[in-house]
Amino acid sequence: MTGRETDLRSQRRWIDTWWAVGLMALAVGIAVRLLFRDLDNWVAAVAGAGVYAIVLTVLLRRRQRGDARASGVETDDVPALERRLRRGDIPDDPALRQAMLQLIHRRRKTMHSKLVWAFPAMLLMSVALGVVLLAGGSAVAGAAWIVGGAVAVGGMWWMRRTNLDRYRRAERRLNASPAQDRARSPQRDREQTAREQTA
Hints:
Blueprint: H1 3-9, H2 18-36, H3 42-71, H4 78-87, H5 94-115, H6 118-135, H7 139-175, H8 178-183, H9 186-198
Helix pairs in contact: 2-3, 3-5, 5-7, 6-7
């Protein structure tokens, strides 16, 4: 077992396993469905939440397998690598640095390819539903769908920019030598990212 495998395996959590994600999605789905429906319809709530939990778990596991193939780590190690990336914890091990860099490249590619259609499609759907509701006489519901859709898409755009900034900073640190990386300050890193965006 290499140092990279030992390092990532020591950071695994039970909550990252596919069955834990599926159970959490099932519990949240049941709670939300029962919140908006009466308790007499609990069988339908459990069945609907079960389908949602299965689909969510399959999609998440598929994404993790693709990330694992791209970065060269085991599928179960992807959440630990993501956590380190999110915290800005850049490893000294060259193989782990390379795996993290490959994960960043895959995420950035995915974010850029989905941008073309995802945000406009979501905004269009919420505005279209709002217009239909407005035309049907539900002014409050129609306005809520339009404003809610615009706020949701704006929030997702902001989250996308935040993640891209995090990826740029991490990529810059990963491309530097470990000694140079330790000498960098996070504040200087944020300032350099801001300068690059304005240029």
